[in-house]
Write a structure and sequence with these properties.
Length: 377
């Protein structure tokens, strides 16, 4: 009878052709090779006492809920259980000298490092001994809503289910199933990949105390996976397109300066000490304006960049903010010359609601000329 297991002469398990719900790795297998169990339907796996290495062998095993590591298992690839969405329990033989398990999670033997958390876990608890969380340990945990930490742990703490360092200076990891995160005042940094794979996070509030997001050349990955709709920065809710521009910014480091007034912040932009593309600067300024149309700290900046900033609003089809501007003191910066450009831009972009708004203002407050009449609707 042909075996369901394909094993080479070196003891490497290359492929599995069976359909059993429980799979027992045969004695003699020393290594489970990449994709050996690709998309297999089993629910449980038990390793024999000869298995030493587990590679990326269980990719897309969506029914797999548990695996038992024998005493011989010495190496587990960080991607071994990628897309195993039903995984709930890692079990380890007590006499295994390399690993142990606690509440279904895989740790090194002395429980100083969390190596892997089952993908289907909704919450985890870090005991006193843990001083390191592996970079991939929580990446696949898309159901995780809460991380809690023992009060006696000297390395970590948590707030509202989010993981921080003990001093509360750095946000280290956000559970992947979090919808909203309010970072407490006093936190100064966001760690690399803290929000990786947070695919349901729609709102984040960043306090004034944040001074740096240290992600190296991977800065643009920080919120890449997050469908954020509400981004509150220094108490100001950013306009959606301003947030999109900021989120897509790439570079080696992105600094958020704390304890600055709006005027200080704008001075930094104006003097180019704070190097942001104009579209991001404009977006942030209009966000400040939308938050408080009577904020006089942005008056000079808007006046200096008025034409480009109105064209920016038209480009982003932001009728609401433009209407607010036309009702504010900033409308004093409108002239017949720049109005021509605004109406032309609205017509080119086919933003007819804004075009009507501008022409209505033009008719009431400026003298229309023959050039503008051809754009009448």
């Amino acid at each position: 009878m042909k075996s369901d297991f394909e094993i080479d002469k070196h003891g490497n398990l290359i492929d599995y052709h069976g359909t059993d719900q429980q799979v027992y790795i045969p004695y003699g297998v020393t290594s489970i090779q990449n994709k050996a169990f690709f998309a297999c339907p089993m629910r449980s796996v038990f390793c024999s006492d000869t298995v030493i290495k587990i590679g990326q062998g269980f990719y897309l095993c969506t029914s797999l809920t548990e695996i038992w590591f024998s005493k011989s298992v010495k190496e587990v690839d960080a991607f071994a259980f990628e897309n195993c969405d039903a995984m709930r329990n890692f079990m380890v033989a007590e006499d295994n000298p390399y690993f142990t398990s606690f509440e279904g999670c895989l740790y090194n033997k002395d429980m100083t490092e969390l190596i892997l958390c089952p993908n289907a876990k909704t919450s985890i608890f870090l005991p006193d001994s843990v001083k390191k969380v592996n970079n991939r340990a929580l990446y696949e945990c898309t159901e995780l809503k809460e991380i809690t930490v023992s009060d006696g742990n000297p390395y970590f703490t948590s707030n509202e289910g989010v993981l921080y360092d003990k001093e509360f200076h750095t946000l280290l990891n956000c559970p992947k199933n979090k919808i909203s995160v309010i970072i407490p005042e006093g936190v100064t940094e966001i760690a690399p990949f803290a929000f990786s794979n947070c695919s349901v996070l729609t709102e984040i509030s960043i306090p004034n105390s944040i001074t740096a997001i240290k992600t190296g050349f991977e800065w643009h990955w920080l919120f890449q996976d997050c469908p954020i709709e509400r981004y509150i920065y220094h108490g100001v809710l950013l306009l959606p397109y301003a947030w999109d521009s900021l989120k897509n910014l790439t570079g080696r480091q992105m600094f958020f300066f704390s304890n600055l007034s709006a005027k200080d912040y704008l001075d930094m932009i104006d003097t180019r000490n704070f190097l942001l593309p104009d579209e991001i600067a404009y977006g942030i300024v209009w966000s400040i304006f939308s938050h408080d149309p009577e904020d006089t700290s942005i008056t000079e900046y808007i006046k200096k960049n008025f034409e480009e900033m109105i064209l920016y609003l038209i480009h982003n089809k932001d009728t609401e903010t433009l209407a607010l501007c036309l009702l504010s003191d900033h409308a004093a910066n409108i002239t017949e010359t720049n109005m021509k450009k605004f109406i032309m831009k609205a017509n080119q972009k086919q933003v007819y609601e804004i075009q009507v708004l501008l022409m209505d203002y033009q008719q009431k407050h400026l003298q229309p000329d023959d050039f503008l009449k051809k754009f009448a609707l």
